[in-house]
Amino acid sequence: MRTILIIVVIVVIVIFLMGFLRRGR
User: Fold this and answer.
1) Where are the transmembrane segments (predicted)?
2) pTM
3) Percent helix, strand and coil across the chain, each rounded to 5?
4) What is the mean pLDDT of residues 1-25?
5) Measuring CA to CA, how many Å separate 22 from each of 14, 16, 18?
């Protein structure tokens, strides 16, 4: 079930990066 945790972490990082890029621009 570690795969689920890894997927969740990746999704959170992607959302955080997208939000950071939107704030930057």
Assistant:
1) 6-22
2) 0.60
3) 90, 0, 10
4) 93
5) 12, 10, 6
| CA 18 to centroid of chain Cα atoms | 8
How many angstroms separate the CA atoms of 16 and 25, rounded?
Answer: 14
Average pLDDT, the chain: 93
- Report residue 20 as tokens: 């950071």
Residue 19 in this model has a pLDDT that exceeds 70: yes
CA separation, residue 4 to residues 1, 10, 15, 20 (Å): 6, 10, 17, 24
